[in-house]
Amino acid sequence: MTLADEIAEHTALFNSLRLQNADPAEIEAAKRKLGELKKAQGVLNAKEREKKGDLAEGEKKKDRILLKTPKGTRDYGPSEMFCRLHIERIVKDAFALFGGSCLDTPVFERKDVLTGKYGEDSKLIFDLMDQGGEQLALRYDHTVPLARWLAMTGGGGQGKVWQVGKVYRRDQPVMSKGRMREFMQADFDISGTFDPMIPDAEIVSLLSTILNNLDLGEYTIKMNHRKILDGIFTVCGVPEDKIRTISSAVDKLDKLPWVEVKKEMTDEKGLDPTVADKIGEYVKHKGGPELLDILTSDATLMANKNAKEGIEDMALLFTFLKAYKVLDKISFDLSLARGLDYYTGLIYEAIVEGSAPPGFKAADASADSTPVPKPKPKSKPKDAGEDEEVDESQIGVGSIAAGGRYDNLVGQFASAAASESKSSKKSAASTPCIGVSIGMDRIFALLWPKWVGLGGRCKDTMVYVMAAGDGLLEERMELVRDLRAEGIKTDFLAKKKPKLPVQFAAGEKDEVPFAVILGGDELKEGLVTVKEQRWEFRDGAKVKVESADKGAKVRRDELVAWLKSSDVWKTWA
Amino acid sequence: MTLADEIAEHTALFNSLRLQNADPAEIEAAKRKLGELKKAQGVLNAKEREKKGDLAEGEKKKDRILLKTPKGTRDYGPSEMFCRLHIERIVKDAFALFGGSCLDTPVFERKDVLTGKYGEDSKLIFDLMDQGGEQLALRYDHTVPLARWLAMTGGGGQGKVWQVGKVYRRDQPVMSKGRMREFMQADFDISGTFDPMIPDAEIVSLLSTILNNLDLGEYTIKMNHRKILDGIFTVCGVPEDKIRTISSAVDKLDKLPWVEVKKEMTDEKGLDPTVADKIGEYVKHKGGPELLDILTSDATLMANKNAKEGIEDMALLFTFLKAYKVLDKISFDLSLARGLDYYTGLIYEAIVEGSAPPGFKAADASADSTPVPKPKPKSKPKDAGEDEEVDESQIGVGSIAAGGRYDNLVGQFASAAASESKSSKKSAASTPCIGVSIGMDRIFALLWPKWVGLGGRCKDTMVYVMAAGDGLLEERMELVRDLRAEGIKTDFLAKKKPKLPVQFAAGEKDEVPFAVILGGDELKEGLVTVKEQRWEFRDGAKVKVESADKGAKVRRDELVAWLKSSDVWKTWA
């Protein structure tokens, strides 16, 4: 895509957002991006004209630079990062709550570590230039680096590992849908041999805890089991070698009607129409644990070893999820297939109501085991679909987290590498794993409009130290230093003799709740003035509450205690 | 460097650490790395033999993979990350304490943004492969992306911005010195026009706060001023066009004796020996604010505009640093020059005693303005030296943080780009900046031996829920869920009916302080048993304190309150 194409696309996006009366924050972001692109084009045009000798003297520069971030990437400024850090804190706190410990791997891997893991999406891998050394590529997800680490080290006996960081896909970026080339994922994985479905229930409970704590609104965790799906396909008469491709067709049922999916199965993939119809009967089922009764009363299905094992797994899982009190968030959905080949058991994805199309209702929180209405996300363009993680291209469609059980991936790594070390091969080969991957950019996109509407602070400074009259610069510095030494986030205006209103304005920009004002005479008596600053919403905008209150006189040496015992402090800190 | 070379180097390192009776953690790390390399070599050998058709049948694999991280990179496992997260928390808390807000830029930039910023070190930039699009490269530091962002956006009026993340330099890695190709830096910068030396004093106070809070031992912040240096050079008779190269020679005084530096000035750089001797007289000065008296009484020097301005800046800075109570950490050192061209004012670097060679003494904390003994780090290999940030190759030598004032960099970006937008050019051109860059890997290397010696926990789980006898799996899950809902980090063994000693062992591995034991009969009465777990050091090793204590019977519905009011909780949480 040329810069001109990008500008055209963004102009269209900006106009459409305005016509739709979209969220002001979204419109503002689109406008800003458009401005940046146009500015970049201005520079480019100047460059072109310079080539033709067509440039005015003053415009000539040898080192003219296009000031923009690379295609498909963006900067996150202070207000946006304040929101992102809030999200990260909630996610990481939950990871620690569930006993996870952190792993950090390099942002790039040896290319052969990534090769053959992502099917036809391998073309999206960002390669580094071979500058005389190894062939390297940016990581595509966190799962493959984790599996490499587990195969190399055995994981040091650690069962629960989390990773939060950016991953890279050289996809065609579509800014209007938030499809980025650099995006952040937060992964939590449990590796090792445990008793059936216990780690699985832990992961589902973790995902539910995070979604609750993020306060994203109602959500549903759709789940299914690969063995049940495979059993259904076998029982319906799908040939062994067509199971994966038919599974991929089923995966499209959330965006295509059955008649289209059937057509793909029969016309494109050569499946017998009667077999397809039998599959159609099965995959329409969705609901809660009562679906197990329907399946277990199906003697033909129960006669299939895979299906029976999968159904038993799900029965056990539902028992556990009841103990974890998350049953009301679950939709057992036989049409959920997920694209990636290496799943071997439970699979799931989370959909938030706020991110679903109009008409979608998340699981009713009051009904523990009531069938959940099937979310019907609107049609979306098809991606390669060989992708385990949250597909960031799906923004505006639904899934904000996804994952499943992959019991053989670490073993595949170990057997491909450790040919000389039979023992490590054996131990790594028996490293079953289950994990979840949370799309942090997707969550940011959902939370940001609310967040910016609440005022858009970019820091949580608590005290702004000011001075009247003569500036009292060193006295301000001393007080700032003393408050910071007590752990109180404090700032002041880096000017020698600033006017008082200028200092108030600087503190108000970040909604700092306490203004501490120094005055020469007061200070000699050991006193400072503290004014509480309050903000409230009026007509949807946040405004400072003006007050005739002259502030409290507080002894300087009692200031810390005074601040920490105030009501405002307790509300903010 | 071939794999065989790497193995030879690591074998030498491992043997030398053992001979030196080095820290066990360091020896263990060296041993592990050596093991990984040898394992990788085994695989490589198998590959070679396979090429020659020399491989046993069972060893043949089509997709054989070298299981290692790329050259100059490493994984950080759970115990190491627990230490790193502790460091990050301290640094980020201080950034917030000082009113900073966060910026996040992409990990790669358009190549032309980085071009011409790093002198001859530009060859160390990691380029991405041109896969039909922009020329991209991994970021080399945080300063250039920040300057790009400031030139693009003006910074949204934000004066204080911090960034924590990895940067990349395709240097020849030397593992034994900790020189890595991927390493983490934490930057804090203040941009904008303020009154003289106030932001400078803020940055020095911030750096001091961080080093205090990290508890790294005694440290010194060496500082100097570019204008004083330039003034000295001019006054001594250095020609204008030789000032930067003579400055680079002076920068080597911390690793070379004066006679060598003088030789470089005269023999290599063609400076008149009498001029060099005059410089030698100046740059031997170091100490506290009293050095100002020596300089201000030097009429020749004070007649130089640059020198006079620099000396006035330093006088003002010392006044402020006294208010900030950090004067005792400062060494005003006229031999500090720092390599990077774009510094325009104050420059500084921090040296920790633990990282300095034997014999070095940090500033005496009791002497506010006593001359500080000059640290004499041992000779180190010369790098290109055109590097603003902490040079990670210097591990084992000293500097763990560095920075300075760069008032023209943002303006250079703006004028190179915004040729068509005169107004933004003007505003960005007047964006003076000062910043500090903290070498997180260096700090990790200093703290890790202590940290791992304290037990090497990798998570801070507080409660381990267990069951006697029948397993009580769902009851354990319910209690785990309830405790987590109260924010208590809780875990349990993911087995159906694990034996009690196995559960204790699992909890003890992470030094979990509370064991909560469920028993069928007790639970019917609404009771659980809580046993506090304690560890202590014996002969330098951490061991669990065995206790005959049978534990306390606590009502299940009062468990949260009981836990949170216990002494152990207050110690740990």
From TrEMBL, chains A, B:
Family statement: Belongs to the class-II aminoacyl-tRNA synthetase family.
Gene Ontology cellular-component terms listed: cytosol; mitochondrion
Keyword line: Nucleotide-binding
Pfam families xrefs: HGTP_anticodon, tRNA-synt_His
The keyword Nucleotide-binding belongs to this UniProt entry's keyword annotation: yes
Highest taxon of source: Eukaryota
Name this polypeptide is given: histidine--tRNA ligase
Any GO MF annotation of the entry: histidine-tRNA ligase activity
